[in-house]
């Protein structure tokens, strides 16, 4: 028995990010603006990582220098006392510089982290708002508001 | 030489432009803050005294009517009744007395008998409480909140315009975490001054 002709199954709609949306008479550009906000957040995060890495690197150099200083102070230079003192002063000066640089890197990392946090809050609120108003979001951002 | 002078002049002009934008942004943010404070004050503005007393009068009417109804005075006209009025003191299953309804009834009778004096005292006290505060009727409050919301949104859109101008000039400014999504998601074409 021949089967009756069935209507073709509907093709799934591709989830294209919404380019334009009107809310309360204001024209929004969800795809473009969310991407821009995410890029700002990512830049701050990258800056935070960069500064944290720099601080970690400086910490290693400080530990090395502190070790070098201990070794240098422990060494016996009976006939070159002045030379030993001068060398100690040089290492201590380098240590001061490294510690100051590390403090600076830590402060920058903290600042970038706080900026990334603020940017993340703005992004999440914007994603939630766009979703609530029926916008299709880029896949990479769709779940950001629940993280 | 001329080229480097021109570049120097352009850099100086850029610096002035950025300084202006930063100052403008500070001003706008100050204004938004001010408008948000006004909104918070409007949101918790008291009712006008007349409205408050009208509500109090309506409540007194209800309680006075209850006070009389619960006395069951219709029993008084019955020939066999001894003329006594009783408060509703209830005895529970555990024989404990429940005085709540009686106290409530006494309070209602007190309100009914002293209504005018009590209203006078409360009106005087409310007048003192209202000193320095701006009362709003419900309609006035709705209108004021709507106006302030519109102004805040306009301020936030100006703020977003300034931030995008700064971003285009290479200066990244952190948006406020409570910035309105209507402003941060607005298309460039909807912010005509950019």
Provide structural commentary.
The complex is a heterodimer of chains A (147) and B (194). Chain A has 147 residues and is mostly helical. Chain A has one domain (27-142). In chain A, 69% of the residues lie in helices and 4% in strands. Chain A is built from three helices and two strands; from the N terminus they run E-E-H-H-H. In chain A, strands 1-2 form a two-stranded antiparallel ribbon. In chain A, a hairpin with a 2-residue loop joins strand 1 (21-23) and strand 2. In chain A, helix 1 (30-74) packs antiparallel against helix 2. The radius of gyration of chain A is 29 Å and the shape is elongated. In chain A, 20% of the residues are buried. The mean pLDDT of chain A is 89. The two termini of chain B are 34 Å apart. Chain B is built from six helices and two strands; from the N terminus they run ααββαααα. Chain B folds into two domains: 1-45 and 136-194; 48-131, no CATH class. Chain B is mostly helical. The chains are: A mainly alpha (147), B mainly alpha (194). Chains A and B meet through strand 2, helix 1 and helix 2 of A and helix 6 of B.
